[in-house]
């Protein structure tokens, strides 16, 4: 039985509909490595700024839990990626993050995107403050590259979950 | 009598409301050179991608006349900037431009922006075809720099028109 990956699965990896459609068009993939190479090319060279902004806006703000209205698989992954941060955070760190997130969004027009896996809130706050000084066009590309890191982690998990389903079905 | 430049004047130079507000905040300027330096800093380092997209969308597509619904001073300048192009164009050039403009917007998510003054439609079509190969993030910054050239030409005209009004009032 082959691994079946649908448009919804790609949207959980990256919240851009253009990205998800182009991944469907390029499917199926014979390995995770090939799929990631294709995803990088689609994300960094093919889809445009509108797609980037759509994907950024799918994430909860760092330091906040995902909104209950968003896709539940997407929300579950966002929570799991921020689990290190939430397990080591403090009220003052969360307060400072909230304030800097507001400044960041005012300057750049989108929320602060960072690959949160394994990072504490203090580390992400330092990164936010450092990146705040960037020119908007520079920061836009950095955010897109952070989004790509998130996408790759999610694709790795997706392929591993689907492989499990396939091997269980084959029993 | 001092030169009076309002937010509407800045919006005719560049259709971003953030740009116009920041120019008002930095006013008055003691020379065109100082104003252009400030405008460059605001446009390239301060306002974000949302402002850039708003300004791009204020322009008519190259090869088309401005929509009658837009600001009439803005429309008048767009027409005058494309006057060389329209005086030397052909039906086939206009047709090809229309087709390439569609492809460009599909790829990049915004219309093709180029400083049209003194350029023929054939020259702009060549530029469009060349720029079409760019990565979206690269093309976004090129479009913003072309917008800046347009803004500078319009600011030069604005200062010259306002200086005329001041000197006539002083008579």
Overall shape of chain A: globular
How many H/I helices of chain A?
A: 9
**What is Rg of chain A?**
17 Å
Strand elements of chain A, count: 0
Percentage of residues assigned to helices of chain A = over 70%
Q: Given the helix and strand composition of chain A, which structural class is it?
A: mainly alpha
Strand content of chain A: under 5%
Distance between the termini of chain A: 11 Å
Q: If interface size is counted as residues with C-beta under 8 Å from the partner's C-beta, which chains form the largest one?
A: A-B, 19 and 19 residues
SSE sequence of chain A, one letter per element:
HHHHHHHHH
Low-confidence parts of chain A, pLDDT < 50 over ≥5 residues? none
Protein described:
The structure is a homodimer. Helices cover about 70% and strands about 0% of the residues of chain A. The first copy, chain A, contains nine helices and no strands. With about 170 residues, chain A is mainly α. In chain A, helix 7 (about 90-110) packs parallel to helix 8. The mean pLDDT of chain A is about 90. The termini of chain A are close together. The interface of A and B includes residues 46, 108 and 109 of A.
